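Q: Sequence in, structure out?
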Amino acid sequence: MTESEPDDLPALPTEAELSPEAAELEPEPPAQGPAAQRRVVLRRSWLPFEINWPAMLVILVLVAVTVFLLLLNQEALPAQVVIWWPLAIAVPSALWFLIALFRRDARGVLASAALFGVSISVLLSFLRVAPLAATLVGIFFIATGTAIMLRGLLLRHQPIG
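A: Exactly. Output:
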C-alpha cells in the first residue's frame, strides 16, 4: 500500500465477486474527499421492486371513481352528496386552471378548463337547472374556447417547434 491510502479501507469487490444479493444493492452517491470517493457505500432498498408513483396515483383515483359510481348507480349515497359531488371536481379543476395559468402551462390550461366545463354542466344538471345535453355543449365549449384563447395569449411569444 502507498502512504496516501489508509489501511482501514477494504478493497472494492469486482463484479465477479458480487453475489446476486449484492447485485441488487444500489450505491449511494460518494461523499467529498479522495478517501471517501474510494469507498462505495451500498444500501438495500426496502422492496425488491420500484414503485411507479404516478401510475399508482392513477390506479387509486380510478378505483375511487369506480366505487363512487357504483354507489351512485345503486342509489346508496345521500341526496346531498348526489347533488353536490360535481363541486369536488370543479374546485380542484379551477385551482388547476389558475396554477397552470400562472405557470404558463398551455396544456394544463386547456385540460383544466375542459374538466371545469364538464363538472359545472353536470352540477347544473343535478340541480335540475337545465338538462345535461344543453349545458354540456354550451358550458363545455365556452370553457374550452376561453382556454384556447388564453393558450394563444400564453404562447404568442414562443417559437413554434
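Helices lie at 20-23, 34-38, 53-73, 79-84, 87-103, 106-126, 132-154.
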